[in-house]
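User: Okay, second chain of the day. Same drill as before: sequence in, structure tokens out.
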Amino acid sequence: MNIIIIIIFFILFLSWSFIKNNHNKTTIFLFIIAISFLTSIRNDSVPDTKNYREYYNALEGIESFIFYTFELGFQCYSYILKIILKGNDKLYFFCITFMNSILIFDALKRIQQLIKSNTNSAINPLLYGLVFLFSYYGLFYNAITIRAGIAMALYIQAFSFLCKDDLATSDKIKIFIICFLAYFFHKSSVIFWMILFLAHFMPRLSKRTYLLIILFSCLIFFSRVNILVLNVFNSFFEKIINILSNSNLDTISLYRETITEEETKLSFKFMFQLFSGFLFLSVRFISMPKMYFYFLNIYYIGLVLGAFLAPITMMYRVLDYFLILTFILYMFWVQSTKLPFRLVFIISSGAILYQLILFYRVIIP
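Assistant: Same drill. Structure tokens below.
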């Protein structure tokens, strides 16, 4: 995928989301089709693509599940798709991205309906949110770590039900079923339970408190105090491996070297998250709906954790469950900010361009 073409593609759809009164769902559907196509034509130089392609092509039946360490839900899903698609691996990748996108679009639509009174009619928030998501996290989790990508899509679905002020019993059941299902696509999704619990019960903080939290995170991150955390973490991780040995979760030991791998350079990705964290404080808190603080609280927990754990490369697989909410917070921000329309577009374009470059640094080290 040529980066220039991809940048033009994203800026085009971003511009489309800024066209006044452009709330046509056809545009969103075109974006989903286009992004699904882009992920389906990737070559084996993209990390993990070759492994998933070989797995899909070798998958012959339910009896072959035992030869792979992939979660049962993912293997069943892949097997069903192979039957339907007659073994076409490009269509397989297309369908995974397409279905994930539909799940996320449905969740965003549900969230948007709850904040409809605050909607800026000059923005198409659903298209904006999807474009922002796929400029980094969407591409990463649909082109590289696709099992976690499916779990992420389910996670956003569960979060969209949690946003209601009064949770009905049926909503609680849906959240439980979705989180339970996500576990069978990626084991790391057990963290969903903790995140959703925190989101629902954490109180709204004052703007000053949020500011102190992010300044503290900046201090820890830029002072490199977090490097000292690695020694403690490595010792703790070894104990966890010993506890989980001979259990269903002992596959985590396979990632021992990657999880404890140290990255001494400053993380450009986390610097973007810090910048975004400041931006999310620029809105008028008094006019923001309660659900905004559900997302903001979880995001800020991610910033604190990231400030300490950013040097551990593999920890982003956990931190991303907190930080993936970036695109939803930007969706709130773009509808609530009092900044000039042109400046909002410039900031959004810069953020999307930055994230695309981050993604290309992953696939082309």
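The mean pLDDT is 88.

User: Thanks, on to the next one.
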